[in-house]
From TrEMBL:
Domain of life (superkingdom): Bacteria
Annotated stretches, region: Disordered: 60-85
Name the UniProt record assigns to this protein: Fe-S oxidoreductase
């Protein structure tokens, strides 16, 4: 695992985050905004696993890009295994 960086919700993700992952981040932020969630102190954390980005929000929401290029989003309240790799 390669360590990455953190940034605030609503801020631009780092440039090295692939466009499909950036799109998923923006969609999740819009969803949270629509729900009225106060994310003013929340941060995204970017790490790299097998040279693919894994982005986690402070609430546990995780966005990852898989080897085939697909992107998945898992929320902490979703109860399922994440063994798609």
């Amino acid at each position: 695992m390669q360590l990455g960086t953190r940034w605030a919700v609503g801020a631009e993700p780092p440039e090295n985050v692939p466009t499909p992952v950036q799109t998923a981040i923006a969609a999740e932020e819009q969803e949270l905004l629509a729900q009225g969630v106060d994310t003013s102190s929340w941060r995204w954390t970017l790490t790299w696993l097998e040279r693919r980005p894994v982005v986690e929000l402070d609430d546990g929401t995780t966005i990852r890009q898989h080897a085939d290029g697909s992107v998945s989003l898992t929320r902490p309240d979703e109860d399922h295994d994440d063994d798609e790799d």
